[in-house]
Amino acid sequence: MQDLQITDMGSIEGYWNKLMEASIAWAPRIISAVISALLIYLVGSWLIKLVKRLVTTIFEKRNVELSLRKFLLNLIHWVLNILLFIVVVTQLGVETSSFVAIIGAAGLAIGLALQGSLSNFAGGVLILSLRPFKIGHFIESSTGVSGTVSEIDIFNTKLITPQNQVVVVPNGVLSNSSITNYTALDIRKTWFDIGISYGADLKKAKEILLNVAENNSLALKDPAPQIVVTALGDSAVNLSVRVAATNDVFWTMHEQLIIDCKAALDQAGIEIPFPQRDVHLINPKA
């Protein structure tokens, strides 16, 4: 029994000695790996901060939209930190293939679950980068949505309609449709038709309408107002009134022109006809 105890003690002592020898042999490698990983982490963190400062400076110089700037900075922050984490654990001797597989699987799952949101995100990046419109512009998309832009987020755009309603439009839909921006330019031109009867003096009607347009206090002299014959309609000859004004007084000028044009034509005795048809009755017995 005593011999057995002595043998067990000898075995334990042998294992302990082997463990100590292995620890002494691996200690320099472990210490160097930890120190290297720590240095890589410190240097990598400093480089990430430097990259973010440089990117922020570039965004400010190019006047990138604030919402897009924040999102891209957060994206850069997380991507660079994940790469730094992979490099650090690799330096410590950890197998990183499993990490890469997990990240890839998670990315695929998130992408499949958020297909619509990713489409809106891509549309938001395009809108904020290309800037087809800005906050305060009045726009209309080919989907029929129109209004004044009040907010542009990374996933959607908020419009305020003339009826003072808020419409939230997904950026994916908005970026894939045709957009008419009515206020991107400082000057906007009104463009409406007035029909006069076929029996009226066409040249006189043009002179009257041109006089009304030129005497409008809100109308711009350059470009000059125009009155153009556009079509011989079913019931009238159509004259197009084309007058430019600044965006802030456009609708006031537009309304004044319509009222003054009608009053001037009425005063001159020029008829603005209603749509009409000539009906011929044929009596076969006659």
Keywords:
single chain, 286 residues, alpha+beta, Helix Hairpins, SH3 type barrels, Alpha-Beta Plaits, five-stranded antiparallel β-sheet
What does this molecule look like?
By secondary structure, the protein is an alpha+beta fold. It has seven helices and eight strands, in the order ααααββββαββαββα. It has helices at 2-61, 66-91, 97-113, 115-130, 171-175, 202-214, 250-267; strands spanning 138-141, 146-152, 156-160, 166-170, 179-181, 187-196, 226-232, 237-246. A hairpin with a 4-residue loop joins strand 7 (226-232) and strand 8 (237-246). The chain is elongated and about 130 Å long. The model has no long low-confidence stretch (mean pLDDT 80).
Number of alpha- plus pi-helical segments: 7
Widest sheet, order of strands: 4-3-2-1-5
pLDDT averaged over residues: 80
Number of strands: 8
What is the gyration radius calculated from CA atoms?
A: 38 Å
CATH C-level of the largest domain: Mainly Alpha
Quaternary state of this entry equals single chain
CATH topology of the largest domain: Helix Hairpins
Reported CATH architecture of the largest domain: Orthogonal Bundle
Q: Quote the beta fraction.
A: 15-25%
Globular, elongated, flat, extended or rod-shaped: what is the shape? elongated
Number of domains: 3
**CA-to-CA gap between the ends?**
145 Å
Low-confidence stretches: none
Main sheet record? 5 strands, antiparallel
